Amino acid sequence: MSTEETGKQYNNEELFSKAVRAGKRTYFFDVKATRAGENYLTITESKKRFDQQTGKFFYEKHKLFLYQEDFDKFETALKQVYEYIATGKVPQSYLDEMAEDEQRKKEKEFTDVNFEDLDKKDDTANDNNSEE
After folding, report:
1. Quick check: 43 and 29 in contact, CB under 8 A?
2. CB of 63 within 8 A of CB of 46?
């Protein structure tokens, strides 16, 4: 199957790209593929700057790489942040996550130990000793 048919090229070329201009910044959302064929997202913030020493303009860039296995977590976090910005209130979904995390921590701290089994071994040992 050719790359035209699959729509994918696995040599780190962009599979899809979207630019968002926001004032003096431009954000690029670029979908690329790993050698294994898994998609990932590169978010690049680009700002045009002026170098006083050379008298030339240049672009300052910051990149964020987001891999496919993290998409759901990232999407959830973005939605929660957007909800907070829109309402000024911490989203209930965030509070629920924090409560679940806290519960998991508590469960890891304590292990339920059943001491009845130890008593049975001691009783058996005592019974054997009394027969001697």
Report:
1. yes
2. no
Tell the CATH topology of 3-77.
Nuclear Transport Factor 2; Chain: A, (3.10.450)
For 93, the enclosing helix (H) or strand (E) is: helix 92-109
Domain layout of the chain by residue ranges? 3-77
Helix axes 71-87, 92-109, angle to 10 degrees: 130
Contacts 24+ apart (CB under 8 A), 63-66: 65/40, 65/41, 66/40, 66/41, 66/42
Q: Give the model confidence (pLDDT) of 19-55 as tens digits.
A: 999 998 999 999 999 988 899 999 999 999 999 999 9
d(CA 100, CA 22): 37
Q: What angle do CA 64, 67, 71 make, to 5 degrees?
A: 100
Residues 6+ positions from 32 with CB-CB distance below 8 Å: 12, 13, 14, 15, 39, 40, 41, 42
Its pTM surpasses 0.85: no
- The residue written with tokens 């054997």 in the block is 128
